[in-house]
Amino acid sequence: MTDWTLASVAEAIRTRRVSPVEVVRACLERIERLDATLRAFITVDREGALREAAGLEAEVMAGRLRGPLHGVPLAYKDLCFIRGLPTSCGTRTPEYFSDRDEATTVVRLRAAGAVTLGKLNMTELALGPFGENDHHGDAQNPWKPGHVAGGSSSGSGVAVAAGFVVGALGTDTGGSIRLPAACCGIVGLKPTYGRVSRAGVMPLSWSLDHIGPMTRTVRDAALMLAVIAGRDARDATTSHRSVPDYATVTARPPSPLIIGVPENYYFDRIDDEVAEAVDAAARVLASLGMKVEPLRVPDPEVMSSVANILARSESAAIHARVMRDRPHELQPQVRERIEPGFQISAFDYLQAARLRARLARGFIGEVFGAVDVVVAPTIPEPPPTLEEARRGTAAERIARMGRFSRLTRPFNGLGLPALSVPCGFSGDGRPIAFQLVGRPFAEATLLRLAHAYEEAAGWQTVLNGGPEMAPKPPPLGTGPA
After folding, report:
1. What is d(CA 188, CA 207) in angstroms, rounded to the nearest whole number?
2. Annotated catalytic sites, by residue?
3. Measured distance CA(318)–CA(298) in Å, rounded
4. Alpha-carbon gap, residue 127 to 281, rounded angstroms
5. Which of 135, 195, 328, 446 is geometrically suited to a Cys-Cys bond with 419, CB 3.0 to 4.6 A?
6. Phi, psi for 127 (deg, rounded to 5)
7. Is the four-CA dihedral 179, 182, 184, 189 of positive or negative sign?
8. Is the dihedral of CA 351, 356, 361, 366 positive or negative?
9. Which residue from 175, 69, 165, 65 is spatially nearest to 128, judged by alpha carbons?
10. What pTM does this model have?
């Protein structure tokens, strides 16, 4: 059961082929066996998960289902506030963050029947794209231990890829959903800014934060998004737009679309194997009836610079207390990323916010006046080793972080939906991925197109008429299946 997709687990529970308790026990046994190596979890709520599962099992037997995720085991990045569980945000302080109410996304998933298995590892304070953590252990890439799992939602990527859970929540300020999804060979969706509530989730940057699903398949991401999306009175930035039936829409064949492949920036200085895999993915999209053509995009470096000013200012304000009272508790590269925010003036911050709005309008008008979807690499190279990520001074590590996340960061400034989808492996078995980017609130278009790609590329298969299966990591250290 730990090899199944979210959709197949939900269906098996609904039809009483398996029980929620059986599924949860299988996941907990796998966590107990492998997580000492992979370091996906900070907190495993074994007793709470089994108690929830038993209650949900009784409801199934009584003919009652709470929703589409009834009995499905999920886990959450450890900056989502859940009453009764510590929220460390990847720091050494167990109760670093709390809120008056639980995270809206978690509340909605629970109302749909999901079981909470626990809280997931992450880069400290969500400040880093590699997933290393001195306090809770470095998250290990399940396909190739000793290599980075991506960050900052590292535990979310590992937990889904390793079969500990069938879905997880991550957050994305500069790529922190898409980077670990790409590194771990799973699907990761950064929705449009305002599509999903961030209430009850520790912020890093109010202007740039997004929260979204991380799953094995595109269909699974659609199922989770349908539950968590929508207006929330606790988050004034959430949109009043209605929420489509993403799961139904995703299953339909995509209409012919114009897909733009950037000629500038996104394929500059990237690994040859990444370029070849993304080019192959574009050819699959063309075979589905899409028109794939070259595209020049407005210089993303400008938006990245603007986003950096906003993120540094806001993260400094958010974490001012720990920087003032307990800076020694933070890792050196985390301190060094927060400190510049204290030097940014109010004038520069406000000018950056104004310029961001103008750049976003210009990008949307110019790019999506010509194409429907943009396709680009998610990561510039296959996941490097943890030793490489940790090498050098704090300043050198920060520069390396910037290079690794440079392909995802601009879309946070733009607030556009971006979906990372696996598209192959390097010669030595490290995952590679591409991202699809669309107009604001075009998640349905991206999901439908990605689902069609997934099926055409053979990423998702059906074995012996059984439940849907997604590629899964092999036994540790043996390379891809």
Report:
1. 20
2. 77, 152, 176
3. 31
4. 30
5. 446
6. -110, 70
7. positive
8. positive
9. 175
10. 0.95
**What pLDDT is stored for residue 475 in this prediction?**
44
Which strands make up the sheet holding 41-44, listed edge to edge? 41-44, 115-120, 73-77, 167-172, 210-215, 187-190, 418-425, 431-438, 373-377, 258-262, 291-295
CA 437, 275, 157, 331 torsion-angle sign: negative
Pairing of strands 418-425, 431-438: antiparallel
Tell me the per-residue pLDDT of 98-135, one tens digit each, with 9 for 90 and over.
Answer: 999 999 999 999 999 999 999 999 999 999 999 999 99
| Domain spans, the chain | 6-469
Write the CA distances from 342 to 126, 286, 296, 314, integer angstroms.
18, 48, 36, 9
**Residue ranges of the chain whose pLDDT lies below 50:** 461-481
**Using one digit for the tens of pLDDT, what is the confidence trace for 145-182?**
999 999 999 999 999 999 999 999 999 999 999 999 99
Q: Is 235 exposed, middle or buried (0-12, 13-18, 19+ CB in 10 A)?
A: middle
Q: In whole angstroms, give the CA distance from residue 121 to residue 139.
A: 7
What is the C-alpha separation between 141 and 384, in angstroms, rounded? 10
pLDDT of residue 476: 42
- State the Cα–Cα distance between residues 11 and 462, nearest whole angstrom: 15
What is d(CA 16, CA 34) in angstroms, rounded to the nearest whole number?
A: 28
In contact, 75 and 35? CB cutoff 8 Å: no
Q: Is domain 6-469 in CATH 3.90.180.10, yes or no?
A: no
Q: What DSSP character marks residue 425?
A: E
CA distances from 255 to 225, 290, 300 (A): 21, 8, 28
Can you tell me whether residue 4 is helix, strand or coil? strand
Token readout for 363 is 């990008």
Count of all residues that appear for the chain in the document: 481
